[in-house]
């Protein structure tokens, strides 16, 4: 019987979804890891012995040797993807990547829009073109993964249309911005496959992006992401593949975090330790990683919200970074019964311990 394990963040992102997916990959070496939201803005960090990799365009299983699959709900940027592929090669990671034909493609013009638009900067952006790409796809100016293997003349017409959509008129400037993009497109052996490709796997690991509290329908507007960060997309894909054996892994740090603008309860500077490998550091777009005490009311809200999308399945809780603060995480403050609770005592360790 086919089995699916779905990894979901309970907060505003940065919970530890990557190491959770890697943990599951270590137990199921014949599986495939599937990204079902988000894109090149992800920073899912995994450490295996001396090897460390920040997964963005590849799923958190690649460093361990598993193939990656990006669904139609993801975005891709050929330049970022190529750079990460070359980095993975040096670490003996698995660079096999299959992409749904309708995954959305980010162009240099989308990145420019994200980094220069005052409204985007106010709402919060990672500066990698995700929001602009999703917004553009509400217009006729769409670009999908399948277009990357279309005749070059057709691809160029679409790219120039996107440039004009953003107000670019100088042909020389357009060509200059497109040069590295097109070089990356030509350097990648694109494997464009729909969901039937997944049918050959008996074990599927779905790796979520960001967290439930940033969901485009359920977060606090305007500081939300252009994605469904609940189990909605993953469950719909499981239904298409007729997978009924589904197991949830809900992830939170032992304290709250938020990277970027927007409301956050219990916010305060935490006295952290053992966090030398923290990936979420300052950048010009997201600014500082904000912290706060864990809010059990918000965790209960996120858990009950996701229950509206997923059927009655086995549920596990994963609490990461337990060694970074003195406060004890109180499972009894949650209103849901879990089949198991796992704790991670090192932020990027593959060693999880069952604590309940």
Automatic annotation (TrEMBL):
UniProt-annotated binding residues for Mg(2+): 14
Co-factor note (free text): Binds 1 Mg(2+) ion per subunit.
Positions that bind IMP: 14-17, 210, 225, 287
InterPro entries reported in the protein's UniProt record: Adenylosuccin_syn_GTP-bd (IPR018220), Adenylosuccinate_synth_dom1 (IPR042109), Adenylosuccinate_synth_dom2 (IPR042110), Adenylosuccinate_synthetase (IPR001114), P-loop_NTPase (IPR027417)
Key words, A-Z: Cytoplasm, GTP-binding, Ligase, Magnesium, Metal-binding, Nucleotide-binding, Purine biosynthesis
Substrates-to-products reaction catalysed: IMP + L-aspartate + GTP = N(6)-(1,2-dicarboxyethyl)-AMP + GDP + phosphate + 2 H(+)
Listed EC numbers: 6.3.4.4
GO MF, one annotated term: GTP binding
Compartment list: Cytoplasm
Pathway note: Purine metabolism; AMP biosynthesis via de novo pathway; AMP from IMP: step 1/2
Cofactor(s) this protein cannot do without: Mg(2+)
Active-site positions on this chain: 14, 44
GO terms classed as biological process: 'de novo' AMP biosynthetic process; IMP metabolic process
Residues annotated for GTP binding in this entry: 13-19, 321-323
Matching SUPFAM superfamilies: P-loop containing nucleoside triphosphate hydrolases (SSF52540)
GO cellular component, one term: cytoplasm
Pfam short name (any one): Adenylsucc_synt
Self-association and partners: Homodimer.
Family, per entry: Belongs to the adenylosuccinate synthetase family.
The protein's role, per its UniProt record: Plays an important role in the de novo pathway of purine nucleotide biosynthesis. Catalyzes the first committed step in the biosynthesis of AMP from IMP.
Name of this chain's protein: Adenylosuccinate synthetase
